[in-house]
Batch of 3 targets.
Target 1
Amino acid sequence: MRAAPERSADRDAALALALEHVPANGWGWRALQAALSEAGHSAESARLEAELLFPGGAIDMVESFIDLADRDLARIAAEPGFADLRTTGRVKALVLGRLAALAPHREAVRRALGMLVLPRHAGVAAGSLARTVDEVWHLAGDASADFSWYTKRAILAGVYSATLLYWLRDDSADGAATAAFLDRRLAGVGRIGKLRGRIEARLGARLGALRERMQPSAS
């Protein structure tokens, strides 16, 4: 998995300032320079600080923005009642809580996705998504260490990506349509999981029977 981007209080604070300027200026140093200038920096010092904080430019800022949202998931997991939920309920709470936190910055999210779909940013896109779903499963209590570790994350990557795209177009009150969409996707995953369990059980039984037949008979 791709390593997380550099983390620092200065970078986090700079992102918080820049977010308000991303809708007008896009992701990149221009948004951050505008934010720093608004905070009282001279034009030259704002330019230098923007380049020092995010030397990778726009994609560096986008990856850090996603990582900041990943770290905020711990806050959702610490909310009262979270630990009492079943695993699927925890996943739902984490995904919807994340989207609620991002709601004031919907245009910034839209612009970030527009950058991540570019072929040259495929590595950042894949790494960021992998870290997000891994953190969701971790906070939901997943402790698997076998092949299901990979399948669970691959499935959730599809569910989360589809839900995020749906959320960007959702104008329902309090995101009710997005919550219903996520419920349907998670229900579908549950049916797949039950079917997989039955198939694995049948295969296991057949393999067990085959091994018994292959055992040499006692003389």
Note: The chain has a mean pLDDT of 88.
Target 2
Amino acid sequence: MKYMNVYDFDGTIYNGDSSVRFYLFALRRHPALVRFFPMQLFGICGYLRKKFGKTKMKECFFSFLQGVDAERLAEEFWEQNYAGIQQWYLDRKEPEDVVISASPEFLLLPICRRLGIRHLIASRVDPQTGRFTGKNCYGREKAFRLQTEMGVCRVDGFYSDSVSDLPLAELADHAWLIRKGVIQRWNV
């Protein structure tokens, strides 16, 4: 049986929300992306009014990807945003760590390569259209994807900033909540 440490990404390893920061980064370089704002607003309003779920809202948000070379831009983004990686993680990272995130896989691949992280599980979003090609990797879906993609494994430590990750915390021998870079025991 494999032992591993599993980490959420946004707000845990990375100080912030990488998807939002990537969007703002893209918007500064390509101001014409404002043309996607009506679709993004439609998504937010529809989600808040419970007309549709989080995945549809995120597809509307990621519609701006139609206006950029997202994979190239993701590389540039991480060249300039590496400093957002938390020092506590850099001090303890190991080759077999697993990063699991609701953020798009194409966005996190460059930073995971740079960090030497070989195991990334994230939302599969088409970088050309912004459409999901699988389920949003959030909540219970994270636990399902971990077990499906990593096989039989034992989670030694799980680290997250969000209680939505409780299903993963319940799988771990030790769970930790990250609050503003401070690690606290998560009593599950």
Note: The chain has one domain: 2-185.
Target 3
Amino acid sequence: MRNTDKILLAGASGLVGSALKRRLDDDGLVNILCPSHAELDMSDNRAVADYFDVHKPVYVFLAAAKVGGILANNTYPADYIYENLMIQNAVIHQSYVHKVKKLLFLGSSCIYPKHCPQPMKEEDLLSGTLEPTNEPYAIAKISGIELCWAYNRQYGTRFIPVMPPNLFGPNDNFDLETSHVLPALLRKFHEARSANRKTVTVWGTGEPRREFLYVDDLADACLFLMNLEDTAVPYMDRPLFNIGTGEDISIRGLAEMIKDITGYQGEIVYDRTKPDGTPQKILNISKISNLGWRAGIPLQQGIRQTYKWFLKHKDYI
């Protein structure tokens, strides 16, 4: 990407989008389109088409999505599948229509089967049944991958789906009903410490294992892939890249780490009546590693940086 190329950053206000914006700014890219929801409803195909007609982006990062944790996915399954399908269909199709040079589509590791062999390879997609608690969201993301592949095969587009693990970092969602596990635990432990509560309740047994990636590392990987020479990415061979650290941690271990970082002194209680979700989720990252990319921010460092951001912004989120 050249410094003056027009880049559409769909979802610029979210966790991933804001990290991508920081990274693009750091690289000196000066022509970045960051429409707010008020300016552009990404799920409205006509509005997206009109936006592309006017602004003519050369590259697209599709980070716009409706995302949430187990509770939110269980409570609003129709919203999660419908809104994500509409956003993906509009942006990916208009990227083809307007001859975008490259598009990068952000998926999620929940696309892989519930009992997938660990670590999960890109080839494991559609090899088994999904985790029921987030199946509608996962199916939407799988549809986005297939849409990218279909346009690549039929029209020779350069659309790249990428699959990160659980993400966290500045500008995360800390709402206890809709957030993912890491930001939810950060807020729970912080509020328990502030209120001198004796216990913090964590859903499930604490035994499931998850991989976590600091969002600025994801942004770095996305630019790495967008800047690869065409010969390095088999566009006509169903491109898909896992992006992660290659390391996981139990929810129990994560809770203990966050307890220490926030300075909470009470007891952790595990509510075994609540679902655990998939037993383990860790990505096989050999494909992107073999191209020369590695994550650079350790989990504990990333959590400390996220907590620092939370403390600065907690009165506004």
Note: The chain has one domain: 7-316.
